[in-house]
Amino acid sequence: MNGLLGSWLRRRLWRTAFLCSGGLVVEGVVPEGACVIVANHSSHADTAALLAALPARLRPAVAAAADYWFAGPLRSLTCRALVAGFPVRRGGGTEDLASAAESLRRGHALVLYPEGTRSRDGRIGAFHSGAARVAEEADVPIVPVLLRGTSQVLPVHGRLHRAPVVVRFHAPVPDLATAHRTLTAYGVPTTTPQTPTSPALAPEAAASEEIS
């Protein structure tokens, strides 16, 4: 269910959920066209926050670990219905992501967590290269997104709590090294040094939308 209606319903669902769980603030310039969203990842609530923030018209789809979210029919159905997830195999993700390029060419958004797993301490690890490859293949920009507060709402192996969440969209960047540096520059530390490939980005003027 990743047609326009399904995307709209998911957006309304997750906006309502955050309205009840502490509020959601969306900052920066939200993408208007096809792009690969790369975000820090510390909670299963990350995906809900992104789907609440992104426009439904982009029909965002989310890369999800095949060995976990698609391990059985019920979990697979839940993942597809609630977050428009599609399976990506650990160790074989590049081929799986290549199949998503066609969706990007149709003007949709693709959400990826380039660390490959949730952070246990909030710090950002090294980025895998799949996001850059699929963005290059589809000729779309990479948009870094910083997520704050999701690990308080739903910690790894923890229970739901009320806490405000911030989703901050940054300007498109040319590569993953710049995306990594952009996210860490805004207060999320890194666990692995990243080699810069272009000048650091200055904070862009940002609009703000609050759901509370």
Structural account:
The chain has helices at residues 4-20, 45-53, 66-69, 73-83, 93-98, 101-105, 130-138, 150-153, 176-185, and strands at 24-27, 35-39, 61-65, 85-88, 109-112, 142-148, 165-169, 208-211. It has 212 residues and is α/β, with parallel strands linked by helices. Helix 1 (4-20) crosses helix 2. It has nine helices and eight strands.
Overall spatial form: globular
Distance between the ends:
28 Å
Number of strands: 8
The strands making up the biggest β-sheet line up spatially as 4-3-5-2-6-7-1-8
What is the oligomeric state here? single chain
Radius of gyration (Å): 16 Å
Could you name the ranges where pLDDT drops below 50 across 5 or more consecutive residues?
192-206
**Helix content percent band:** 25-40%
